[in-house]
Design a protein that fits this description.
The complex is a heterodimer of chains A (351) and B (608). Chain A has helices spanning 38-52, 68-71, 90-100, 112-116, 120-129, 173-179, 193-205, 231-237, 287-299, 317-321, 333-336, 340-350; strands at 60-64, 81-84, 105-111, 133-139, 142-143, 149-150, 184-189, 209-215, 238-240, 242-247, 262-266, 272-277, 303-310. Chain A has 351 residues and is an alpha/beta fold. Chain A has a single domain (23-321), classed as Thiamin diphosphate (ThDP)-binding fold, Pyr/PP domains (Rossmann fold, 3-Layer(aba) Sandwich), CATH 3.40.50.970. In chain A, strands 2-1-3-4-8-7-13-9 form an eight-stranded mixed sheet, with helices on both faces. In chain A, strand 11 (262-266) and strand 12 (272-277) form a beta hairpin. The N and C termini of chain A lie far apart (64 Å). Chain B folds into three domains: 17-97 and 443-479, Alpha-helical ferredoxin (Fumarate Reductase Iron-sulfur Protein, Chain B, domain 2, Orthogonal Bundle), CATH 1.10.1060.10; 100-201 and 351-415, 3-Layer(bba) Sandwich (FAD/NAD(P)-binding domain), CATH 3.50.50.60; 203-348, 3-Layer(bba) Sandwich (FAD/NAD(P)-binding domain), CATH 3.50.50. With 608 residues, chain B is an alpha/beta fold. In chain B, strand 18 (434-436) and strand 19 form a beta hairpin. In chain B, helix 3 (28-36) crosses helix 19 (476-483).
């Protein structure tokens, strides 16, 4: 970590996006996490993705719980809205915010402790309700803020820094998300921005509950031999099923590869996900076979990454609740407070 | 691409753009940090060791370092390196006790012809190493064109006296008022070596109609400046035209303004942008109400009854011919006539060697220039060397000094039985600056910080006295601020691939996107795929293989701020910030060079 702010000077030829902003305009305060933390690489990937999509920073709400991962929203999108909630309670706060203002882009950032232990219930319900959000778990398998105890996502048999093995079974966040009905499920690795940035872009443009499990090595407590979440281990066991490009509606789509090696998925907002297939038998639109594929490869000790499942036409919470089409703050008082006559009418209808 | 060999001093030297661009390779960031920490005497000695005339150069240098400065590429203007040098000279106090003592004589005799910067610098190096040096000078005072041509309002005479004095104090024998009129007879005097630093003493004339008839009011720029300098000329007409676009023309017009020229105009043949004068000199001239008119070719001097009345010019414009060469063609508009009382002709300088007999063995090329080796400065007579303007035509003081150091090395090699082609390598050190997890021994807080202006004397006072120095120099407060604009480009980013875990922390934190981890390829391909556009081909890539993933780390040195963020964010110490100090080789042992202390700006000065 550094005490100095990052210098404001930037590359003289730094490009600008459609909003006239540079990538530097999407940054936040300087990180106070350990030097080399995977979480910082994920923050940088979020910055890249939001810049690439030309998202207006002030239309994004970033929410988090407690933990190393949940500190990170301070370190990106300094101009966005933020809410640093109670431990494990980010999904509820996000759901509430989303109900009140459906026009913002919701980005939930959490960790394996925040989402797989104390907040597991909250995590499950936000996904099954189909809240339109991007939910990123920065998964390092340890409690970094309390000196590196195993978390609920640590693999059975993995060794901690002092050589002790983990005896508990790991919670597979991706498996849970698939079962719970998330309409966009991906896994990636903080050390591979080429894969991670397009996944975040796709998740941000997805109009339903999008979940990304991002393995993020803890350089201080979980980056040694015997760890299954170290840079070396993840690089050796990484089994990417596809590579993704996100293409906005205006760009022309060219197919360079042979037919059959590229799959195009058009999302609800018109953006196109171009998937270059690596694993030939993998179909990212089939939830059941995705669960099966993941289970088989997990048995083989592989870490499957890439876009694992996407429903191009998802339903979302506002859809099934039939709520108002505008954010609550866009209604005037007369609509929001209809008065005692309206209340009496409702009461009468219930008698 | 080949892994970068950072053990080759040239790689990191090139990263220090200012030092690389300086002909004498003065370690600029090093002395700027000394100034920032209040150690002006140390900063002066670093300069004196390298460029011999810090006080003079701090006022008059052509500053090749400044256009090269990295601050100019990431912001608007470079660090005011030249004027910081002057700060060190102005505030150094007494440094006589730090100067080398006259060395025991080694019995070898060297003659230096001319007492300009080249000869004096060569004399300094050799005298300090024990040679008996005799300097011959036609004028009565030492300094050459530094004394005769640079106006006092830019360079006070006391500064020249002081810095020439440090050289004569080394036991250099000086024969002023002794013009060498024959190389042959000098050769016959049996000197072991001769250094020719006689400059480019002849001003180019302009032979157009009316030149002879109005000769009384037409003056050659450099001769006129010398005459002003020595007090022979004290006035000029009310309306003055200065012909020429170089620094001499700027000195002429500004001097004329001070000697009674109320309406002084500079006229140049080509465009304003193409003028040879340094931009800041043009700015100063225009600031003294001197218009610069361009694209006017002199046709004739107009005269009446033997008196100059004005000049006629043809209007031209620049065009490219079929071969793409730029040339001036008449616009067809009517000629321009401008009335004037005096004309100063400053259209260039030429070398002149009337005193070198053509049968001495010194070969001349078809332009009348001596054949001189660019590395050794040796002529076709093995023990005769050239330097400064005499070697390759008019350049500037800092080039003269650089030539002189090389000639001195050659003379030393030749007279000690060595091979003059066997050039001694520079002295190089590379030392980590890490003091703690977030602590470096240099000030790495880089901020947007625009260049500070040097205070000037009030115009009416400056124009009233030709001896009054216009620039007042930075005071210590301003100097500290300007010094802190330096990006410390000598604090190098040193990368150890074996330690790297490829976590991307350096890539993410770099404020200018210097660093990329990518698949290996040839340089042309690599440059196209970096995280930031890599368009400046004059700046090298630092490339390292040997990473676990088989990729390469590529760092584009172009706009690196040397802020050390990469090293601070590196979890394994694969990046380190190390100070690179390169001292050019010189003859003998110079003063216990200035130790190279690690020092943060703002820290307490250490007693020298």
């Amino acid at each position: 970590m550094t005490y100095l702010p990052k210098p404001k000077l930037h590359h003289p030829d730094l490009p600008k996006n459609e909003l006239g902003l540079t990538r530097r305009d999407y940054e936040g305060a300087i990180s106070t996490l350990c030097a080399g933390c995977g979480h910082d690489a994920i923050s940088a990937a979020i910055v890249h993705a939001c810049y690439n999509l030309s998202l207006p920073p002030h239309r994004i709400a970033k929410l988090s719980g407690i933990g190393c991962s949940s500190k990170t929203p301070t370190y990106f999108l300094g101009a966005a809205h933020g809410f640093n909630s109670v431990h494990g309670r980010m999904p509820s706060v996000l759901t509430g915010a989303h109900l009140a203002n459906r026009d913002l882009i919701y980005l939930g950032v959490s960790g394996d402790g925040d989402s797989a232990s104390i907040g597991l219930g909250q995590f499950a319900h936000a996904l099954r309700r189909g809240v339109n959000m991007t939910y990123i778990v920065e998964n390092n398998g340890v409690y970094g803020l309390t000196k590196g105890q195993f978390s609920a996502t640590a693999d059975r048999g993995a060794l901690n820094k002092r050589g002790a093995a983990n005896g508990d079974e790991a919670i597979d966040m991706v498996g849970l998300a698939l079962q719970l009905g998330a309409t966009f499920v991906a896994r990636s690795f903080s050390g591979d921005k080429a894969q991670l940035v397009p996944l975040i872009e796709a998740a941000l443009t997805h109009a339903g509950a999008a979940f990304i499990d991002c393995i993020s090595p803890c350089v201080t407590f979980n980056n040694h031999a015997g760890s299954t979440k170290s840079f070396d281990y993840v690089r050796e066991h990484n089994e990417a099923v596809n590579f993704l490009d996100v293409i906005s509606g205006r760009e022309t789509i060219t197919l360079e590869q042979e037919p059959g090696t590229v799959e195009l998925v058009t999302q609800h907002d018109g953006s196109v996900l171009r998937l270059r297939k690596v694993a030939g038998d993998y179909d990212p639109t089939d939830r059941t076979s995705a669960i099966d594929f993941l289970a088989r490869h997990h048995q083989a000790g592989e870490i499957v990454t890439g876009l694992l499942y996407v429903d191009p036409d998802p339903t979302s919470l506002h859809g099934h609740l039939g709520t108002a089409t505008k954010p609550l703050n866009a209604f005037d008082d007369a609509v929001l407070i209809p008065g005692s006559a309206a209340l009496a009418k409702i009461n009468a209808s219930l008698r | 691409m080949q892994t970068t060999d950072v053990s080759n001093p040239a790689f990191f030297h090139k990263v220090v753009d200012c030092q690389w661009a300086c002909p004498a390779h003065t370690p600029v960031p090093h002395y700027i940090r000394l100034i920032a920490s209040g150690r002006n005497a140390d900063a002066y000695m670093v300069n004196w060791h390298s460029n011999v005339f810090p006080g003079i150069l701090g006022r008059t240098c052509d500053r090749p370092c400044e256009p090269a400065c990295r601050r100019g590429r990431v912001e608007e203007e470079p660090v005011a390196i030249c004027r910081l040098k002057r700060v060190a000279a102005d505030n150094k106090g007494d440094v006589t006790h730090r100067m080398p003592r006259p060395a025991p004589r080694n019995g070898r005799r060297v003659a230096c012809i001319g007492a300009g910067p080249a000869s004096l610098a060569c004399a300094r190096d050799l005298a300090a190493a024990g040679y008996s040096v005799t300097v011959f000078e036609g004028e009565k005072k030492l300094g050459g064109f530094i004394r005769s041509q640079i106006p006092r309002f830019r360079l006070p005479e006391s500064v020249i006296d002081e810095e020439v004095g440090y050289i004569t104090a080394l036991g250099v024998e000086t024969r002023t008022g002794h013009y060498i009129s024959s190389l042959k007879s000098l050769l016959a005097e049996g000197y072991d070596a001769i250094f020719v630093g006689s400059g480019a003493p002849r001003g180019r004339d302009l032979e157009i109609p009316g030149r002879q008839e109005s000769a009384a009011n037409i003056h050659l720029g450099i001769d006129w400046l010398a005459s002003v300098s020595f007090g022979h000329t004290t006035s000029i007409g009310r309306r003055v035209i200065v012909l020429g676009g170089g620094n001499t023309a700027m000195d002429c017009c500004r001097s004329a303004r001070r000697l009674g020229g109320e309406s002084v105009t500079v006229v140049v043949r080509s465009g304003f942008e193409e003028m040879k004068a340094s931009p800041w000199e043009k700015e100063d001239a225009m600031g003294e109400d001197i218009p610069i008119l361009n694209y006017l070719v002199p046709l004739a001097f107009l005269h009446e009854g033997g008196t100059l009345t004005g000049m006629r010019f043809q209007k031209v414009r620049a065009e490219r011919d079929a071969k793409g060469r730029r040339q001036l063609v008449p616009t067809g508009e009517p000629d321009v006539e401008m009335p004037c009382d005096d004309v100063l002709v400053a259209v260039g300088q030429e070398n002149a060697f009337p005193w070198i007999e053509r049968d001495t063995g010194i070969e001349f090329d078809r332009w009348g220039m001596p054949v001189v080796d660019e590395t050794t400065m040796q002529s076709t007579i093995p023990n005769v060397f050239f330097g400064g303007d005499a070697a390759f035509g008019p350049k500037n003081i800092i080039w003269a000094v650089a030539h002189a150091h090389q000639a001195a090395i050659s003379i030393d090699l030749l007279l000690s039985g060595g091979d003059v082609r066997d050039r001694p390598p520079p002295n190089v050190t590379l030392v980590s600056q890490k003091m703690g997890i977030h602590e470096w021994s240099y000030d790495n807080a880089i901020a947007i910080d625009l260049r500070y202006k040097v205070p000037h004397r009030e115009k009416s006072l400056a124009l009233a006295d030709i001896g009054a120095e216009v620039e007042l120099g930075f005071d210590l407060g301003l100097a500290l601020k300007e010094a802190q604009r330096c990006l410390n480009c000598d604090i190098q980013t040193v990368f150890a691939p074996k330690l790297c875990i490829e976590c991307d922390a350096c890539v993410d934190i770099c404020p200018v996107d210097c660093i990329t981890f990518t698949a290996d390829a040839e340089e042309r391909v690599l440059r196209q795929g970096l995280n930031a556009p890599s368009l400046n081909m004059t700046q090298d890539l630092q490339v390292h293989g040997g990473l676990k993933t088989g990729r390469v780390m590529v760092k584009d040195e172009d706009v690196c701020l040397h802020c050390g963020m990469c090293a601070e964010r590196c979890p394994t110490g694969a990046w380190d910030m190390q100070r690179f100090l390169l001292d050019m080789a010189q003859v003998g042992t110079m003063p216990p060079s200035i130790t190279h202390p690690t020092m943060k700006s703002g820290a307490e000065p250490v007693a020298a």
